[in-house]
Design brief:
By secondary structure, the chain is of the alpha+beta class. The protein has five helices and 15 strands. The protein is globular and about 40 Å long.
């Protein structure tokens, strides 16, 4: 596992440098000629989007019981910046804290939203999904914790964000305090699999942790997001014999 992560780390360094040069010129979208089925054609660095064997998202339909370590969340409810980046609403954190899984430590960098959910469970999509993007403190691979949203009782943490969503691409607002743990379910049981970014360049350096239990949020707050982004979800990708693990 360590050897594999080291290879991914070296690839990540290379990928981040070349992608930085092309980022300003690249355009992509979720529909039309710049949609998911064309991402690999838009930029040579996006080749994993079509040729990768461990692409995300996936449908969580068949799982294998495994001895998975519990997730320890040590996030910090500090400030940050919320931006409309043209693809989603993203919150960047100055000091997000850590997620610990066994002997791995991941530092929280940002989180963002998708509607409908990118991952599915036995074919079922959810109204929204949030991705908490972490980076391994030693190797540099990503660990993404995903939580599904369903309509129900109001969630104060999400309501605070939804009321301040920047309406226009490129617009951003400062956040004095983000109640991160308010966006988590009571149970942190999760599915685990190895996958990729769900946006270009689709690099396959992500350990996905999908929370089994969704959280309830006000339907009106979901509508505030979908008024801006009604469909920013990549289609389901083939599992290609990957194992999706769940704690026994």
């Amino acid at each position: 596992m360590i050897h594999k992560k080291f290879i991914v780390y070296l690839f990540g360094i290379f990928l981040s440098s070349v992608c930085a040069l092309a980022a300003s010129a690249e355009q992509w979208d979720y529909t039309g000629r710049e949609g998911p089925e064309h991402w690999a054609e838009l930029n040579g660095h996006n080749l994993p989007c079509s040729s990768g064997s461990q692409q995300s998202p996936v449908d969580i339909a068949q799982t294998i019981e495994a001895d998975l370590p519990s997730l320890q969340i040590r996030w910090k409810s500090g400030g940050g910046t919320m931006a409309n980046n043209g693809h989603t609403i993203q919150v960047d954190l100055a000091e997000g804290g850590t997620l610990i899984r066994g002997d791995e430590r991941f530092r929280l960098k940002q989180f963002h939203f998708h509607a409908p959910s990118e991952h599915r469970v036995e074919g079922k999509a959810f109204p929204m999904e949030v991705h908490f993007v972490h980076e391994d403190e030693e190797i540099g691979i990503l660990g993404v914790l995903s939580v599904f949203f369903v309509p129900g009782e109001a969630n104060g943490a999400f309501a605070d964000l939804a009321s301040a969503f920047p309406a226009h691409e490129g617009e951003q607002v400062s956040l004095h305090k983000v109640e991160l743990t308010g966006l988590l379910p009571d149970s942190l049981d999760y599915w685990l699999y190895e996958g990729s970014l769900t946006t270009p360049p689709c690099s396959e350096d992500v350990e996905w942790m999908i929370a089994v239990e969704p959280i309830e949020v006000d339907a009106a707050d979901i509508a505030r997001f979908t008024a801006l982004y009604s469909h920013n979800a990549r289609p389901i990708r083939a599992p290609n014999r990957r194992f999706i693990l769940r704690a026994d």
